[in-house]
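REQUEST ID: PR-0412
SUBMITTED BY: lab tech R.K.
PRIORITY: routine
TASK: structure prediction, single protein chain
INPUT:
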Amino acid sequence: MEIDRAIRECSDRRLQTKYNNATYVIQRALALYSIEEVAFSFNGGKDSTVLLHLLRAGYFLHKEGQNSANGDLKDFPIRTIYFETPSAFPEINSFTYDTAATVDNMEKRYFLLSDNLFLSSYGLQIDTICTDFKSGLEALLKEKPIRAIFLGVRIGDPTAVFLLFHHERAFFNCLVGQEQFSPSSPGWPAFMRVNPILDWSYRDVWAFLLTCKVNYCSLYDQGYTSIGSIYDTVPNSLLSISDSSDKFKPAYLLADGRLERAGRAKRLSSSNCGQRPVDSNGLSSLDLHKNSMLTASVIAVGDEFLFGTVEDQLGPNLCRKLHSVGWSVLRLSVVHSNIDSVAEEVEQKKSSDMVFIYGGVGPLHSDVTIAGIAKAFGVRLVHCFCPYLSICSAFVKVLANMMEKGLYAPDEEFEEYLRHIIGDQCIGDRNEMAQLPEGITELLHHDKLSVPLIKCQNVIVLTATNVSELEKEWNCLIELTESNDLLTLLEPYVSKQVMTNLSDVEIAQPLSKLCLEFPDLHIGCYRTTRYGSLVVSLKGKDQERLELAMKSLEKKFQPGTFKEMN
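STATUS: complete
OUTPUT:
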């Protein structure tokens, strides 16, 4: 079998270890389930392509172990699922159907790579699903006796379940593949998720594809390093050829695999762009980027805030920071240190474009934020490995010994972390801090942060406990935004404030009219004391609009009624 032969003959010891572990997981799954009970989710991407060929090799080795393999594979009997969407790149669709084309129904086609010829179609049994992932799976599992699905999920994938380092004893027992079998989440159709390449890095993926000389989607040769939809994916700027703005090096030349998602760019949809009436005081052709509106909600977790023991300074500070990057804050709320309270609040607020939550993160009984988020999204908590999980010295030594013997091949990120801690080993057990919501969690690492930020879909968990820590985390978040799809930075808000001695009754109706005249501006008023001067505040994204609104307000009263504030 050409894949198995290519890996055996290569000199890459790390890749061989990864291959052996992955094919072991596959053979284990094929021993547990019949061929009719397993399926393979293929999407045309690089990880999925790696898994396709690992499955071919794993199936060959499985049949060889049963003394029924005859030297090569003529077809691929594992049912293949492809979710086709209108937002997929044409190149992805083309590559998928070329790869999955049944040999019996089309002329055999070959492609040339180096000096070798390989068959480009593998006789896949493909089920094309045009609905969403969950609905499609429900329908498929009702029709077919599928009990396990092979997924090309890696630990670096934001949708990955962070199970690779499920528990220290997995390494002490040297049980390969224990974390690669994971039941589907509550609320989903019941099946076993099989993740043979969960511990593979970006470097491992490309080492496999190039060593085995298999075909992959042409977009990867055009600078794309991680492919999503046509709306959120561009070539990775890190691969740009210096003397050209539209030419890029191939994906396998990316030096730092941790930056593979730098080509994921969130683009503003028309639904996010404010549509203003044509007669709203000249507001008919403002730049869409200026006029865009993204909303955030802020949640503070802690009984100490509600009892008044501690004054919350982070919430107002965070609101100002969000306004500085053009985001509108819809709500700022404080909830009890109670899982149900957090879950209910997150459930209500997650309709915002982004939710920021702080407080209640840690190993104490009152630290319920992570559990509340998991409940809001209907997923369970699972153990993970992350840089603030303490590791005992004996554990480090076992891992190092396993690496020397080739029994364990960590990804580059973990190797870097081991090198960092090996000279300053930590003692202790803080596993509670290492429980994260399953399947929706992404750790946001930054060199300046000893504890990574946590992102669960559109919820970002901050660990700051004071303003200076928040300042540091916010600056790191903005820096990460430059190389990742985290926050869309919009035109910042500008404001204008004036003071007046008018009574509420005198100014109420004119202010109501002003709001109708300028629907794009936030117009508010407040008093610092009950009988003190009234402050009128105007906020927006265009200084000229603020000036125009201020002149309109002044015209409704006698000159000198309003005094501008600094």
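NOTES: The chain has a mean pLDDT of 76.
REVIEWED BY: pending
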